[in-house]
Design a protein that fits this description.
With 449 residues, the chain is of the alpha+beta class. Helix content is 30%, strand content 39%.
Length: 449
Amino acid sequence: MNKKLSKPPIPLLSRRWARVGLIVLFTLSAISNLYAQDEQVNKSQFPQNLNSELRRNTWSIYAEGGLSWATDVWYQNLNAKRSYNQSPAVGGGIDFTIRPWVRVGVEYLWSRYRREQRFSSLNTQEMPVKVYGNYMMNFHNAKLGVQFNFMELWPHRRAQWFNAWMGTGIGYSFIKGNEYGMFFNNTMTQDGRTTPIGNNLIVNNESELSLTGNVRTTNQHEKFNKLFIPTVLHFEADVSRRFTIGLKGEMDWLLSRGGIAPKNYIFGLATIRYNFVSSRAKKLQTYYEGELSVLNDEVNEVQKEAARYRDRADSEASERQRLEQLNADLQQRLLDSENSKSEGKAAIEISHYVQFVNNSASISKDELSHLKHFAAYMRGHQLSVIAEASTPGTTRYNQKLSERRLKHVIKVLLKEGFAKESLHPQIAIGEQDGKPGADGRRVTIKLVK
């Protein structure tokens, strides 16, 4: 078999490639401008990160179509159509994007390659002579691949809608087709000798002459399967959250191709991808529902805090009113006491008591607040302090309990500015008064006249 091609593939720097490149460039520029405008509008609505939303643990499917080339096919072209150099290619696949910079997937691609032989001159000295040949093979490519997005090498890039993927993998090609040929066979038999009918034919009229001619066609089927290694360069642009378009170039190297399989396949494809992600409306709804939920939580928290402050303000106002009333009563009693002294009458007794719970020497919060206010108004006077305990319990225990109560009250009065000599007498009488109820669990403070 002759493995040499009669016509080389299309040169990479030909005018056709230049036109294709310009069309692709202008298309990508137009898409980028439109998407940049849309992105500016989106930024004013809510924060987004396309890489996080569209390319992190997401599935997508895509369809693709374009042209394919097969190189180093053993069946050479002779006077063939130029269109036989390329063939249509269609397919699709499924990808899973693990992170914005890596994805894996499976793909199926169908195409074919053809070769044609149209002989403009025939060698009539050899029979049979081939006058036409056509070789066509259909191939089905299935592959597993991994791709890496090298646009992610740019940190903090803004144009996340544009991505460039490079990848490889392993594939298997199923190839089946046939070779069709037409052959002429014209011979002359004379004097027992058969020769092809061609130029410089000499016929002897003295002997018997036989002329034979026939046309033969052949249709030989071919079939083989080969592993291949693909390399892919795929440029993609997001036109919406769910749809992505792209241009893809691929070259497949066939392994152990033998003498009949091509050396490699080359593909130029356009792709459209559908991303299984929530729509923009759904994303906006989720985003604003989350924002409203946060705001509602904040409003509820502010309302609760305001209610606590109102309750505290009401409590403090009530306490202030009570203390003002207590202050007025004490002032009135002091005034009455002074008046009584000046008039020689019996003095009005001024006193305050600290109430304790059963079997406790601790001063409650309310009692401590009352004691401090009483101390503030009586500072500068001499006070007597008498502590007692109710009758339940042993006498000795009740005595110790009254002493502890006395000690705690004295400690508070000293902190409020009283001198030790101003707190006299200090007496702990235990259960001497024989009071069994709450009136026996007190420390009584009296103004000494």
